[in-house]
Amino acid sequence: VQLQASGGGLVQAGGSLRLSCAASGGTLSGYRLGWFRQAPGKEREFVSAIMFSGGTTRYADSVKGRFAISKDTAKNTVFLQMNSLKPEDTAVYYCATTRIVWSEIANHKHYSNWGQGTQVTVSS
Length: 124
Prior knowledge:
The chain is an all-beta fold. It has strands at 2-6, 9-12, 17-24, 32-38, 45-51, 57-59, 67-72, 77-82, 91-98, 113-114, 118-123. Strands 2, 4, 5, 6, 9, 10 and 11 form a 7-stranded mixed beta sheet that branches. The chain starts with a strand and ends with a strand.
């Protein structure tokens, strides 16, 4: 399965963006899909994840209440709606797939298939 992330851009603080992660070459059914982000000089950070079959979700505390992950099964796509953006949300955002148990979903080391990343820049 190939992943294509898109939707990043430049937005002012308080604004919104919606990221998309479209899969091709196979179905996301049975996978867990995670969104991670990495700012310059920082470690890759978990943002959110969803069970593509079922829809269970998880969020990092830093984005809870502001971000929402969702899926479109027919389009084989996962979305990340980002509201009330802050300058500290600035990073390259990546989507990735895993089959790891849900308790380990936030650990990027369990993901082996990554999209190319999309830049999100939030100005103050």
